[in-house]
Amino acid sequence: MKVLKWIFIVMLVLLAVITVIGLAMPKETEVTVSEEISLPPAKVFHFVAGFVDRTAWDPWIKADSAVKCTFDIVPGYIGSKYNWDGPVVGKGSMLVDSVVFGSYLLNQVSLMPGKFIPEEWEFTPSEKGTSVKWTISMSSGSPFGRIANKAFSGMIRKTMEGGKDELKSYLETNGVQLSKLTETGIEEYPATEALTLSAVMTMEEISAWFGQSLARIMAELQVQNLQPQGMPFTRYTDYDESTGKFTMTAGISVSSGGKSAGDVKLVRYGSFMALKGLHTGPYDELSLSYLALENYAKENGIALEGVAWEYYLSDPAESADPTRLLTLIAMPLKTK
């Protein structure tokens, strides 16, 4: 009996010591790993927040060859969900909770009903491209839970280190495309009258010139008391391969009664048939959609005139997320 009594006392003492140690430990245990990736923050952010090819680098998923994953992707990222179920990793989910496009992502990881583990990502511009910080936070009110979290943190860190290395390798090998082309087809565009400004320039000069020109056209609309009849557009003609220059026309279709004023010209455009496609994403990836449309034209025996129209269906000033910008591309068909 004395032996049992002493064993019981020792167990109580050990329990008390463990409790005291656990209570002295912080409620929250954070595990953070960092990496430099040679891509812009917007692209790294989109890849991670959009669950793009997540299974190609996720260290826990890669450890379970029999795992099954499903994705429910929501425009704007928030509310997107990633589910997994496997014999090794078990069953769980990850929900995008909040984002700041290009710089911050908070996911909520659920490994059991009603319990969530925060997973945070920070994306900061750096000399190499993007400095990425990935943090998983585990919290517990129980002293035993705090000790367990601390004990498991080393293993979690090792797994995360492998994951961020896989992420870096995948991104720097494959890159990231923020845009997509949809709604490809042939469509007729009606005749229109528009107030326009034109200039000869290179691709590098487009952005600054277009913003200034659009402001001048809008001011002239107000002077003439005209109503815009659609979103702003640009029209590209007369490309010269030797100089890399082309004629760019910025315009806004207007109600009847408009007139030319100085270099702001009223132009009447006839109707035309065109190969069109909806580009969703940043303007600096429009060239990818043009390439896709040109390939579509070749594959389908469609002869193009060599002119291109872009209709800007979104206002970039109203969207902090460039992946949601909509641009309709129309490439007129060559007439016989």
Give the helix/strand layout.
Elements: H1 2-24, E1 28-37, H2 41-49, H3 59-62, E2 68-72, E3 81-86, E4 90-100, E5 104-112, E6 115-125, E7 130-139, H4 143-174, E8 180-189, E9 192-201, H5 206-223, E10 233-240, E11 245-253, E12 265-269, E13 272-280, H6 286-299, E14 308-312, E15 326-332
Antiparallel strand pairs: 1-7, 2-3, 3-4, 4-5, 5-6, 6-7, 8-13, 9-11, 9-12, 10-11, 10-14, 13-15, 14-15
Helix pairs in contact: 1-4
Please characterize this protein's 3D structure:
This protein is α+β, with helices and mostly antiparallel strands and 336 residues long. It folds into 2 domains: 25-174, START domain (Alpha-D-Glucose-1,6-Bisphosphate, Chain A, domain 4); 180-332, Multidrug-efflux Transporter 1 Regulator Bmrr, Chain A, CATH 3.20.80. Helix content is 30%, strand content 37%. The protein has helices spanning 2-24, 41-49, 59-62, 143-174, 206-223, 286-299; strands at 28-37, 68-72, 81-86, 90-100, 104-112, 115-125, 130-139, 180-189, 192-201, 233-240, 245-253, 265-269, 272-280, 308-312, 326-332. The protein has an 8-stranded antiparallel sheet with strand order 8-13-15-14-10-11-9-12. The chain has a 7-stranded antiparallel sheet with strand order 1-7-6-5-4-3-2. A hairpin with a 4-residue loop joins β6 (115-125) and β7 (130-139). The longest helix has 32 residues, at 143-174. The protein is elongated and about 75 Å long.
